[in-house]
TrEMBL record, chain A:
Ranges annotated as spanning the membrane: 32-52, 72-97, 118-144, 150-176, 183-200, 232-254
Domain of life: Bacteria
Organism: Streptomyces spinosisporus
Keywords: Membrane, Transmembrane, Transmembrane helix
Protein name: ABC transporter permease
UniProtKB/TrEMBL annotation, chain B:
One example GO MF annotation: ATP binding
Protein species of origin: Streptomyces spinosisporus
Keyword Chaperone found: no
Assigned keywords, A-Z: ATP-binding, Nucleotide-binding
Name under which the protein is recorded: ABC transporter ATP-binding protein
Length: 266, 219
C-alpha cells in the first residue's frame, strides 16, 4: 500500500515552509490588531507624553544596584510602548491560534508532523512579534530620540516582551474556553505588568516584587541601555525565559489536544 | 461482486467493543463495526444516538473509554461541521493539505473541485464561501489523498440536488476502486445504494436485513 521511501514521489510542498507561510498570513490578517498598531500606538505615545511631563524619576537597575535619575516622560514612553506591544502581540497570536485550533488538529490528523507545525507556528509568532516591536519602536522616534545604542536597547526590550506576550497568546489560545477570558487576561495582565514597572504611576516601583513579572527584564534592559549606557543581557534573557516558558506550556497543551488515538494495523 | 467461495478480504477498518460515556450518561455500550475494502456502510441513528461520537472515535479524534479501533491503510475524515481556515483560499487549503499528505501534485484536489462543481471559487477565501461550497471543500480535503477508508458525518447536508448526484457519482467511483466508505446519517433516502445499513440503538450497532448485500457487522 505504501511505497518504499526511496520510490515515493517528492512532495510538491514542504510541510515547514507551507505551514510557516500560512501561519504568518493567519496572524497578519487581523484587521483590528493592524488598526490598533497603526493608530493606537502613536495615539498612546501622544497621550502619555502629554500626561507624564518631564519630572525626574528614580529608577533602580537591579543588575548593578545603580539608581538612575531619569526623565519621567521618556521612561513613560518606554512603558507605554511595552504596554502596547503586550496587548497587540498577545491579541494577534491568541486570536489566530484560537481560530485555527480545530483546523490545526485536522492538519495533524491528515499527516502534518507535530514538530513541524509547532516549529512553524513558533517561528511565525517570532516574525510577527518582531514586526510589531519594530513598528512600535519606530513610532516612538517623533517623541524621543535616544542614541543608536539606546534605541536598539528599547527595540530589544520591545521584541522580548512581544515574544513573551505572543507566547502567552499561544498558551491562552490553546487553553481557555472563551474569547473574552483570553482577551481579558492579556489586556489586564499586560496593563498591570507594565504599569507596575514605572515609578511614575507606581510608588512601589523599584521594589523586588517587580522581578516576578514578565516585563521586568525587558524594562530593565531598555532603561539600562537607553539611560545607563549598559547592556543588561541577563535581564533580556529573563524576558526570553518567560517567552520560552509560556511557549513550552502552550505547545505541550497544543500537542496533547491534537494527538490521534487510532491504532494503525498491518 | 458475488462473494462465492473466495475468502472475504481482510477488513480495512475494525472497531471492537467500543464504550463511551459522558459523565454518567453512556453513549456507546459495546459497538462493533467491521468494514471491508470497497464496502459502503451507513450508520443510522436518531438525534443523540451517539453517531458523531462513534465517528470521532473511529477517526481517532476522541478517545474511547474501552475497546479499540484498528485501521489498515489510510483514513479520510469529513466532519459534519466544516473544519476550514476562514483566512485561506480554496487553493491554499488544497496546498496545505497536499503538504500534510506529502502529495507530489495537486491533480487529485483539482479533479475533486471540478467533480463537485466549484472550480470558480478556487481563489475565494473559505470565510466568504456559502454553506454548501464550504461543505464541498470540507469533503475535498477528506478525499485529497485518496484514502482507503473514508468516514463521512452527514456529508450531503447543504448540498443542492445536482451536487447530491455528483456526490454519489464520486462515491461509486471510490467503491469501484476498492475504497471503503462509512456514512453517518440520521436519514437514509436511498437504502439500496448501501452495502450495509447499521442502526445505532442503545449504544450498539445492529445490521438491517434490507441492505443489498449480506455483509458482516459486529463481532
Amino acid at each position: 500500500m505504501s511505497a518504499p521511501d526511496a520510490l515515493r514521489p517528492r512532495p510538491l510542498y514542504g510541510q515547514f515552509p507551507t505551514a510557516l507561510r500560512f501561519c504568518v498570513r493567519d496572524q497578519t490578517r487581523n484587521r483590528l490588531a493592524a488598526l490598533l498598531l497603526v493608530l493606537f500606538v502613536p495615539a498612546w505615545y501622544l497621550m502619555m507624553d502629554a500626561l507624564a511631563g518631564h519630572t525626574t524619576l528614580d529608577f533602580k537597575l537591579y543588575a548593578t544596584g545603580q539608581v538612575l535619575h531619569i526623565d519621567g516622560g521618556h521612561l513613560t514612553l518606554i512603558s507605554a510602548g511595552l504596554n502596547s506591544v503586550t496587548m497587540i502581540a498577545g491579541f494577534v497570536v491568541f486570536d489566530a491560534v484560537r481560530k485555527a485550533l480545530a483546523f490545526d488538529r485536522r492538519l495533524v490528523y491528515s499527516g502534518y508532523r507535530h514538530s513541524t507545525l509547532i516549529g512553524a507556528k513558533s517561528l511565525a509568532i517570532a516574525v510577527v512579534a518582531g514586526g510589531i516591536a519594530l513598528y512600535t519602536v519606530l513610532a516612538v522616534l517623533p517623541f524621543w530620540r535616544p542614541g543608536p545604542g539606546g534605541w536598539f536597547a528599547v527595540y530589544a526590550g520591545f521584541t522580548t516582551i512581544a515574544l513573551a506576550y505572543g507566547a502567552l497568546g499561544l498558551l491562552l489560545g490553546v487553553l481557555v474556553k472563551h474569547d473574552l477570558e483570553g482577551f481579558f487576561l492579556i489586556i489586564m495582565g499586560g496593563l498591570m505588568d507594565t504599569f507596575l514597572q514605572n515609578p511614575l504611576g507606581n510608588p512601589l516601583a523599584n521594589k523586588p516584587v517587580l522581578q516576578c513579572f514578565p516585563s521586568f527584564g525587558p524594562m530593565q534592559f531598555a532603561v539600562g541601555g537607553s539611560f545607563g549606557h549598559t547592556a543588561l543581557w541577563n535581564h533580556l534573557a529573563l524576558g526570553l525565559a518567560w517567552a520560552a516558558a509560556f511557549a513550552t506550556i502552550g505547545l505541550v497543551i497544543f500537542r496533547i489536544k491534537t494527538r490521534s488515538r487510532v491504532r494503525t494495523g498491518a | 461482486m458475488a462473494q462465492g467461495s473466495t475468502p472475504a478480504p481482510p477488513p480495512v477498518l475494525q472497531a471492537r467493543d467500543l464504550h463511551k460515556s459522558y459523565g454518567r450518561h453512556p453513549v456507546l455500550r459495546g459497538a462493533d463495526l467491521t468494514v471491508a475494502p470497497g464496502q459502503l456502510v451507513a450508520v443510522v441513528g436518531e438525534n443523540g444516538a451517539g453517531k458523531s461520537t462513534l465517528l470521532k472515535i473511529l477517526a481517532g479524534t476522541l478517545p474511547a473509554d474501552r475497546g479499540e479501533v484498528v485501521l489498515s491503510g489510510t483514513l479520510g475524515y469529513c466532519p459534519q461541521a466544516p473544519v476550514l481556515n476562514a483566512s485561506l483560499t480554496v487553493e491554499q487549503h488544497l496546498r496545505y493539505f497536499a503538504a500534510a499528505h506529502r502529495l507530489p501534485d495537486l491533480d487529485r484536489g483539482r479533479e475533486l473541485v471540478r467533480l463537485l462543481g466549484y472550480e470558480q471559487y478556487e481563489a475565494s477565501l473559505a470565510g466568504e464561501l456559502s454553506g454548501g461550497t464550504r461543505q464541498k471543500l470540507n469533503l475535498t480535503l477528506a478525499l485529497l489523498h485518496d484514502p482507503d477508508v473514508l468516514l463521512l458525518d452527514e456529508p450531503y447536508q447543504g448540498f443542492d440536488w445536482d451536487t447530491y448526484l455528483r456526490f454519489w457519482d464520486l462515491v461509486d467511483d471510490l467503491r469501484t476502486r476498492g475504497r471503503a466508505i462509512v456514512v453517518i446519517t440520521h436519514l437514509v433516502f436511498e437504502q439500496d445504494r448501501f452495502d450495509l445499513l447499521a442502526d445505532l440503538t442503545d449504544g450498539r450497532l445492529a445490521p438491517r436485513t434490507t441492505s443489498r448485500k449480506d455483509h458482516h457487522v459486529g463481532a
